[in-house]
Amino acid sequence: MHFFARRLVQTVPVLLFISALTFGLLLLLPGDPVLGLLGPGVDIDSQAVDDMRAELNLDKPIPVQYATWLGNVLKGDLGRSAATKQPVSDAILSRLPVSAFLTLYAVAIMLLIALPLGILSAVKHGTGWDLLASAISVFGLAVPGFWLAILMIMFLAVRLDWLPASGYVSPRESLPDSLRYLLMPAIAMGAAGAGTLTRQLRSSLLEVMRDDYIRTARAKGVRGRAVVYRHALRNALIPSTTMLGLIVGQLIGGSLIIESIFLVPGMGSLLVTAIFTRDFPIVQAGTLVIAVIVVLINLGVDVLYGVLDPRID
Amino acid sequence: MAFLTPGSTSHVLPLVPGARSGRQVTRLHHLTRQVRRSRQATIGLAIVGTMTLIALLAPVLVRWDVGVPVLTDALLSPSRAHPMGTDELGRDVLGRLVHGARVSLSVAALAVGVSVLAGVPLGMVAGFWEGKIGAAVMRFTEAIQAFPAVLLAIAIASALGPGIENAMIAIGVVGIPAYARLARAEVLRLKSSEFVHAARASGAGSGRILIRHVMPNGTAPIIVAISTGSASAILTEAALSFVGLGATPPTPSWGSMLQNGYQFITIAPWLGIFPGIAISVTTFGFIFLGDGLRDLSDPRLRGR
Questions:
Q1: Residue ranges of domains in chain B
Q2: pLDDT at position B130
């Protein structure tokens, strides 16, 4: 538990930095931040501008502004959308479950690709299989997810008509339909993560296979496959687990564009629409929420890491 | 999209040996000879080199009127006159891709420059003066890394407004932590070595030790990271342009060409294919170059 406590304490300054960075985005807006927050087409002399200025304490020094903003955020008040005037927190809460489900789906697909591929390339090290697996993983890294999305729409949806080109069905309505609609977005999101994870797994498996205890296991007469699964894989998975938090964070980053291509009503498409309509409060709050979620995922992964590896404490 | 985490393995031998400068020619010769020993690095370098040449020679390779709309030629499929077809304004796709290479590579180069120039000194300071300063720098880099790269770049660029310069700054800031952490790890590794003790014993100050002794020996992983980081920068630039935050029209950018072509995928699929190939081949080249260089700098993998 000592490790967990230390990790938890480290998270606090990180979260503070994150909030400062997202608050700081407001200072980057060219011109008057009130006009940026209210969106385009606002009359500079109108009552709304004065109200907003008072509400944000813009006449006070920046640290005071930040403290007020942070206090509001902690109370769950993320401001109001420039376009709809609705609370940003409502929009985010309605979008979050969609993105969470899609991300889980993408992670599942990523594991389905990366685990066999990583093991295959390490076990068949130096053969044609290794080359093939490495080529696939570099392909996953080099191809932009949103281009993969476009290619899949072109071939799997338009040309072959196998999958719906876009849209969303809630898993509560119909799980099979939901999985069918989200298959292409999940693949587009998971591909790059699969590339990273395959490479990580391959190199850590190769490293572990050189260890003495593997030689001991072989000398004892343990068969090739059992050595890999029972002895090597367990230790090789540990560094891959730490990578998982980072990879999931990047998957969520990829979801921004991919959700908007496939018209999935999640956080990503909410943010991209907000960028196009210059709805800055949503951009700011969405960025903050996603970053905090990524920090919490990483915290969870590290705790898991402590459980998996008894040497950590 | 920036999935490349540089420097996960340890680097023991520097690519560029020797703590003394002044033999640039020999160094370059040494480097090219090393690169040729790895097939991956050779392929990567060939791709990156070709793309750089295309970007540099774009005005010579493509006629000046490539960006001028010819509405009678709109949405022509690939032919002899237009090997990659034309877009909805009748502009030649191949010609725009060639000019797009200038945008992609220059944005990547300058963004990586920003990351390295800010990240490496930050990391060196954090490594050399551990304790409060080091911890603060590390928490700061963790905070930046908590933002998915594309998200932070998009958030910064949407606050700054669209445009190539703003995209460069956004991508550059996002890249800082990777170099800071790498430089810190190198300094931590090197600062207890004997040659650093020797330098200190002979009276060198901290700044001098850091710049003259530690830095030249820690360059190998940074060079590897620059290569993979360039791949990430190109992918992020494409993503920014795709959401309209990168190059503004009529500047041809691979990402904005894809965004544009995406609207015509049912009637003009070539518009959605060729820019993607250009992005993928270039990032592939940088990843291969980075992988090859990493293997070359890892003595455990030598002679294989």
A1: 106-184+224-304
A2: 80
